[in-house]
Amino acid sequence: MPIKVLDSQIVSRIAAGEVVERPASVVKELVENSLDAGSSQISVEVWGGGVSLIRVTDNGAGIPSGEVELAFDRYATSKIGNLEDLESISSLGFRGEALPSIAAVAQLDMVTCVASEGVGTYLSLKDGVIAGQGSQGRSQGTTVSVRNLFRKIPARLKFLKSVATENSHVANVVSQYALAFPEVKFSLFIDGRAALRTPGSGQLIDSIIEVYGVEVAENVIELKGEAMAPSPRVAGMVGSPSVSRSGRGYLSFFVNCRWVNSRLLARAVEEAYHGLLMVGKHPVAVINISLPAQEVDVNIHPTKSEVKFRNEHIVFSAVHRAVRQALVEKLPVPRIEEVAVAYESPSPPSQALLPSAKVSITSPAPWAPEVPTSSLPVLRVLGQLDNSYIIAEGPDGLYLIDQHAAHERVLFERIEHQRSRREIEVQGLLEPMTLEVSLRQEEVLRSHYQDLAEFGFSIEPFGDRTFLIRAVPVLVHDKDWAGMLRELLDSLSEGDKGDWAESVAESMACHSAVRAGQALTDEEMRELVRQLEQAATPHTCPHGRPTMIHLSSGQLKREFGRT
Ligand code: ADP
Ligand code: MG
Known about the structure:
The chain has 563 residues and is α+β, with helices and mostly antiparallel strands. The longest helix is centred in the middle third of the chain and has 19 residues, at 312-330. Residues 3, 29, 33-34, 37, 58, 60-63, 71, 76-79, 93-99, 142 line the site of adenosine-5'-diphosphate.
């Protein structure tokens, strides 16, 4: 279909809005255009977190020379023509908004060539205004280069996170489309480094290997992909419970190959894992749902990242059934109690450890605060409640102490203190361990493995998606530190954590602290309370939650109606 400006009647029906929020949104729109153009090869290159340069090159259909300029008009699209088309959209784009929106906030150059014209066309725009055009040789396909994103909009620039975080968002977009289109050869270069390459073999497992690494790929179960009308076809792969993750970032959903966020679908998958995962753990899943275009409305969200199913119920149960069936066939579904036991104490990643002092609550605090700024009175431990709370008595009433939160606070301060003095105790591993991470995590880790060294992690790059760990902090050496690192990288790649070092200390403290439900001896409780008394901020855990509840003698009297 030639590119045409949509008439106002259709425009009024499209959920238009701001599409360029950050560099990754530019990448998303450009990659979607390349996919709509039927490309079999798409290369994405970003520099400086995508602010300096984003370049997407494809070998798709290209744009005829006579239509190139028009493509930058608002609401100009070749993908829909009338209102009926809006009811059954089969392309990823349809609003004719992306190119003009991107051109308005950056400097954009396009070179494009269709097979029927021997020579290509270039068009260059600055702040949305044409600055140059002409013909230029190139093979069939399109290259769009976007430079100096948001240079004229400081408010937007300010909103962007660190380069590492923006890179990680870009990596996520490319990863998702690589998973959705295994038949397309994707490559991603970040500051000149090849970050991702998929073979374009058409096999989903090949994309999974590249995006999530071999460890995940070896532990996925294929969905049957049967369609039984009126149910949609549900295809893809789900991870076995052994590769569960602590966030929902590993749930990828595509509806007719469009990457979408969907709480409905996430719930369908998570319910299918019911009883198979420990509380707080989430599955890995890459699922494509194919259904007739009329059965789904993709025109409800400005960035097209949410969809509405005509019949949610049918979609929900189709996904739930497909996943549950795959899991049940592959695994002898154990009872919940067994699972809980099996996963409760994740075995440490390596037993091959050099000898070291064992750390536990009972070991004396290896540091003493220079100025004891205790804001807690001396407490006398009376006992433990529910294996989770320490009951203690102070000069003014009763204290109920959350043992996990309190220990977290103590450890957090100790870690911060030791780090500031470069005194973190390190445990060398007899044999270095490899840590496989996702592309997204890799982007964060690459720019921070040296920071992690300050905390006692000796980490070095070791090829694609893999890092070599030679030493870990003593505090976490017998804990699931690999899981801890992954969780940390996930939360940091979201970019909402402020201080890096604080997040690392928090995470280490949280993973090494005694758990709720763990019985403590009197001696251990006394030691913990003594350490808490010495903490600088004893009343809250590092996340800001209270460590204790205090009932003063006055309150107790009032409660019992005495005056
Ligand atoms: P939409 O994708 O919603 O149609 P865009 O602003 O993203 O709107 O693109 C406008 C038009 O430019 C598209 O409809 C398409 O015809 C053309 N176009 C954009 N990018 C490409 C590309 N990489 N290859 C071929 N045609 C493209
Ligand atoms: Mg588009």
